[in-house]
Here is the input.
Amino acid sequence: MIPRETVDKIFEAADIYDVVKDYVNLKRAGVNYKGNCPFHDEKTPSFVVSPAKGIYKCFGCGAAGNSVKFVMEHEKVSFPEALRILAKKYNIEIKEEKLTEEKIQEKETRDSLFIVTEFAKNFFKKQLFETTEGKNTALSYFKERGFNEQTIKKFELGWSPSKKDAFTQTALKAGYKLKFLTETGLTVAKNDGYKFDRFAERIIFPIRTLSGKVTAFGGRTLKADKKIAKYLNSPESEIYNKSKILYGIYLAKNAIVKHDKCFMTEGYTDVISMHQSGIENVVASSGTSLTVEQIKLVRRFTKNLSIIYDGDPAGIKASLRGIDLALAEEMNVKIIALPQGEDPDSFAKNKTREELTEYFDKHEKDFIEFKINLFAGEAKNDPVKRANLIRDIVKSVSVIPDKILRGEYIKSVSKQLGVNEETLYSEVTKLLRKKFDDNRNKNYGKFGREPVKPRLPNETTGIYFEVIEKDILNFLLNYGNQIIEIDETEEKITVAEFIISEIKNDDLEFHNLVYKEIFRDYERYFSENNESVQEYFLKHENEKISEIAAEILGPKQELSKIWNTYGSSDDNIEKRLNKIVPEIIDTFKLKIVQLKTEEIKKQIAELPKNENYDDNLNELLEKLKLFDDLKIKLTDILEKTALL
Here is the structure.
C-alpha cells in the first residue's frame, strides 16, 4: 500500500500543466491552456487546463479531473498505477506500507509470475531476431504473411525454438523457479521429472493485460501435421483468465476512446493486420466465444461495438450469442460481414485505412438487419422458420435494458418483417416475465434458498433506517479521513469519499430528516475543508445537529449492535474499515431495494384490468426486474462478505 504522505507528495508534485502537456499539445489562453481533447475527436479545441486550480476540463465531452485522474483516464490504469506513473516522472520514491503475510505472499506470487512472463517474452523475441532458426523459420513466415518488421516489433512477436526444453533450461539457469515456470504454463513438468516447453517450435503471440503486462501467450505451429493443435494458449493461472482478456486491448484502448468505437475480431493475426493497415481500435476474443467480462472491458472505453465476421455463414451462426450478451450490457452493436472466403486478416492486407473504413461504414448493419439477411433465404418460404426467426430477433430485443431503445427496435422489426407492433410488445413482455420468474426461482426456489439476511435489528423499518443512517454518520465523522482500499480496483480512497460517492451515485436518500441534513452539510463542508469537519459539526448553529455530532464523537460512542462481529473497540473497527464500510453501505442499499421491490409487487397486485393493463404491467415488470437484479447482486455481495 502506498502511504498517505507519499500520495500527498505525488499530488503536490504533479503539476496539471506539466502532466497534460506530455499527452496534449497545449497553447496558452489567458491564465489557462487549451488543446484538442485526448478523450474524443474534435477539430476546435475545447479542452482547458487550469494550472491555478490544478484541474482539466473538456467542454465538449465533459471529461474533468486532476493530474492523477488524467493519467488514470488516459492510460486506463487504476489509482495506484497512476500514482506510480507520476512518482516515476517526478522521481518520488514509493515505500510501500507493510502488508499482511497473506497479502505479501499473494503479491509476491503474482509479481513473480509477471516477471517470468516478461522474461519469456524477451526470450522469444531474441530467438526470433537473433537466431538462425528463428530468422529462417518464424521471421520469414511473418514476412510471407505480409507483416513488416515495425509491426512484428510493435506486437513483440516471437519464436519458441524446436529444442523441446530450450526455454525451460534457459529460465532455470537464469535463476527462475520451476514453480513459477509451471504456474504460468510455460513449462510442463511430468511426474517422472521430465520437463519441456509448452510452446516449443511455435511462433509466439504475447497477450497483455489492460495496463500492458504480459499475462499469457498464444503459440501457432508452422507444421501441416493435423494431429498437432494449430494454436495453443497458456492455461489459466493466477494472472490469466481468458474470459476477462482481449487480445490487443493494451494497444487499442487509446484509439477506442479517440474514435468512440471498438472493432471485435476473433484472432491474433486479425488484430495485427488491421493495425498494420491503420485501424488500431480493434481487439480479438482470441478464438473463444465472446464473454460478458470481455464486453464490459470494451464498455470501459466505448459503448459502440462493431463485430466483424468472416464470410462463413455457419461460423457466424455459431457465434451469434455474443450479440445478445453485448446488447444486454447496453452496447450499441453493429455487425460487419466480410466477403465469402475472407477473414479480417486476409481482408485487411494490402488495404489502406481509408479503404477499410469505407467498406466498414458501407457494410455495417444493426443486429436486426443482419439476422434477417443471414436467415432470409431459409425462412422466406417456410412459415415455421420465419416464426423462429422473428422469435430469435424478439429475444435479442428483450435483453436490451433501455426501454426507449427497445421500443425503437420493435418498430424496426415490425417495419422490416411486417409484424404488428402489439404482437411484438406482447412477446417481449412474455420473455421479460419469464426471465423474472426464472431468476426468482433460480435464486430462491430451486434449492429452497432464502436470500441472505443483512445485519438488521428486529425493529420497524423506520427505526432500522435511523440505526444504520446514524452508523453511516459515525463512519463519516470518526473515520472520514481514513484511507481504505477498494478490492475490485485496488483504488485507495478515504472513507468519506467512498460513502459520499456511493450514496450520491445511486441517488440514495436518508429517511431521518436531521441525518439527511447532516449528510448534505458534511458533503459540502468536507469538499471544502475536511481537516476541521468534526469541529464544524460540534459548533454547528443547529442545536440538534451539534447535539447528535457530540453524541457520535463522544468517547463512549459505539456502532450499533448490528456490527458486533467486528468488535466494539476503535482499534478493531479501524483495522476492518476496508470490509465494514462497503458492507454497511451495501446493507443500506439492500434495505432500500427490498422496500422498493415490495412497493412494486403491491402495485402489480392492485393493477386495474383496463385497456392499459399490458403497458402498465410491462412497465412495472421492468422496474421489478431492475430492483430484483439489484437485490440478487447485493445479496451475493453480502453473502461473500459474511464468509470472509
Remarks:
- Confidence is low (pLDDT under 50) at residues 443-460, 565-569.
